[in-house]
Amino acid sequence: MSERVANCPNCGAPVKFLWSSAVQTTCEYCHSILIRRDLDLERVGVIADLPPDSSPIQIAGEGVYGAKPFVVVGRILYEYEQGGWNEWHVIFNDGRSGWLSDAQLEYAVSFLSPPQPAPLPVAGSVVCGNKFRWNGLTYEVTSVTRAHYKGVQGELPFEYWDKSDVSFADLRTTDGHFATLDYSDEKPLLFLGEAVDFDGLQLKNLREFEGWR
Q1: 3-class SS at 139?
Q2: Concatenated DSSP letters of 23-83
Q3: Has residue 116 got a pLDDT over 70?
Q4: pTM for the full model?
Q5: Does pLDDT of 157 surpass 60?
């Protein structure tokens, strides 16, 4: 599918793609979850009602990271015992795909790491205090979280609509870099990034609601 607009196979409404390489998206009208299969869209489910949250970020929001503009095209929402957080899928003007983590007023930008020389640690083997070295930096595990997948919205680079409970390990360096080991799939994924300041992201097209700021 090369066009940026298609029709929802469930309700026929136009589905506009902010990112031409999206694998999964959602219909704004009937809330269907749609997967791209070659030239067609396939309905695989329906979005559950997402719980309300206080994040000012929303789909089609814009910002800047590393002097490169980006637009928010999707999100995955998780809940755990201490609250919840959003993983916003962002696309940069050079086509690069990344993630903006939004967890109770703490923000971070990360990118999927290419394969590492050594295999990533398997689920259940990681505990706080473990250290790993990636791309010349030493990361220490600071938390291991079991979270509940709550839903999706917008465009994602992979199918992610049938999850339940998932595990993550967060790691940090001494100079502000961080990493996440994602165990939501059969094979672990590694995301590398850094904590960012909200104002430094120069965000615009934010949600407006009473009580923010």
Answers
A1: strand
A2: SEEE-TTT-EEEEEETTEEEEEEEPPPPPP------TT-EEEETTEEEEEEEEEEEEETTE
A3: yes
A4: 0.88
A5: yes
